[in-house]
Amino acid sequence: MRELLRQYPGLLAAAAVVLVGLGVIGLTDVLRFSVRRVLAIASVCFRQSIRRRVLWLTPLVIAGVMIVAQFQRAVDAQDAVRQTTMYCLFATGLLTVLLSVILACTNLPAEIENRVIYTVATKPVTRLEIIVGKTAGFACVSFWVLLIMGAFTLAYLHWQDWSLRRVISRNLETNMVDEVSVPTLTYYRDRGTLHARQLGLPERLDILSRMPADDEDRWVAGGGDGEIMIRFRIDRSAVPPPDPAEAEELGPLPDGARRRWPGGLALVLDVEARRTGNGNPSTAPATAPAAASIGIDLRNGRLESVVSSVALGYFDIALPAERVPLLLHIPQEHLERWIPASAGATDVYVVVTTGASGYEYTLRRAGTFMQVPGRKFEPVDIIYGGRLGWQLRGGSGAGGRLAIYRFRGHSMPRGAATYSFELRSQLEADYWETLEEAPIMRVVCDIRNRRTGYVARGIEVFPESNRPAYFDVPAAAVDDGTGRADFDVIVRMTSNGWITLRGGSNASLKLIIRDQSFAWNIFKSLLILWLLSLLVIVISILSSTFLSWPIAVVLTLVILGGRWCAQQLGDLTDPGIGRAIVNDMFRGSTAATSRAVSESVDALVAALRIVSAVLPDISVFAAIDAPQRGVAISAQTMIEALGVAAFFGLPLLVLSYVFLKYKEVAP
Hints:
By secondary structure, the protein is α+β, with helices and mostly antiparallel strands.
């Protein structure tokens, strides 16, 4: 039971509120519960809201959306539709939430002040039926608002899509578009600009100095153009404070040596460097470059630099014949900032940045680890990439540099002859400012099916900066024959310049798996907004049971936005921030002052974390981002929104009933 309480305190607290409120305090009212009386109260609340002409706000909001949409600055047709979708859904959500807050917060206090509640409370109606009926009535109002705004959104977006496709078709027929834009505009003409696509994101992105022979043969370019990111999972409680009296041997190292270090956390990097010539490692440059070197950054789980290379220093790397693993002891002050004492098991990153040009660098996984007395931490993952937003260099100076997107495990629909990819990135041409017009940038993609060995070579793409470019590939290149994706996309920049590539959830290259109905996607978005309005209504009614309506409005907004505000504070909610503030702002202070500041800040942060943990996470009601990007809302998103609405809504509804039950509202 204690372990269950530790793992699920919020769930157990919510269950306790519901059981005590309905099973103990309100058992009599539960047994007398009547759906007919609830519907009667709901209809009264709905009619009262209609008499206040709240639905007349929707035409004003619609007119505002249409006016704002006329002044948008879109880079292309799809971007125009995306911006309009954002305006429509944002206005819909804002209108629904504001109406829910105002109606629900003002209704009960107004009825008590006007003594209308006397008529209801003296009837054979329970307080539970009053609370549930008012919630249902206001939920019905938000439903009609969403229905009206949803119908407008669909009609307006389809009209805009029809207008844009007419213009695109006419421009293509009269050859009034640039050659580079023809594939993308043809895609818009044939498939429209309204999408609800299921996208396949790459598992990882590596930017390398040459084509690898296998998964372990990965090298990055020198000269500051590459970095190697190593992810560790460290349990801070397993890292004891340094004790020189208990120094132990570290090893054996990859070179067979055993060394001693003064306790704490030791980092061992088995880095190898070798000379290159014009991108060919077998060709030595005419003039020997400076010594190979690396810098080391320590980054937290959000990839924010905590300890930079300036603080840790730069290290020369011997060539293969003299290669010796690098041993680095992490000082205690750096360790506290990197992995705070109260962090527990957490992901952290060691980033190796390449130094001198004329070399390429790699990291041997078997010889890379972190160690404390009695325990060794192996790397969870090693990613080879480029600095400054994962930039890939092209043209004559690129040598053999390339990027590899790895797609794994996506379920592929059967029967498709081709699949489409979307490439959206930023471009930077060499000597762009000397040209009268922007040069045509060219990217070449090879797609290698790892299971079947099929390779689609030389797929040319002509991307434009910050605009999507689409290209089709044969189904055999991405489908392994079992309906699963198992392929790599090798990207090379052939034009002089740079292309910025991203990985993760915002990957520059995405696989379009299937396209769902846009109307169905808007419906799911509106359903999420309705679940949010239900939560808002319940919180507003709870606040209005013991506060006047102006204060109830403020409290409702605080409850809704409290957790989001705590999340936006970022580092201020990290464990150990007190010591970091002392080191940065109170260096040189007395021990008593430093301790007082550190403990005070940590106490405030702990209180903030506790408060934010019991508040609803409204970020799960993300109903705008996916439709705006043309991405289908997943079932997981719907389940999370429903879970938060039920997890917080039901206990708060029971609390509202309990507060109203013991509130004197009638003689």
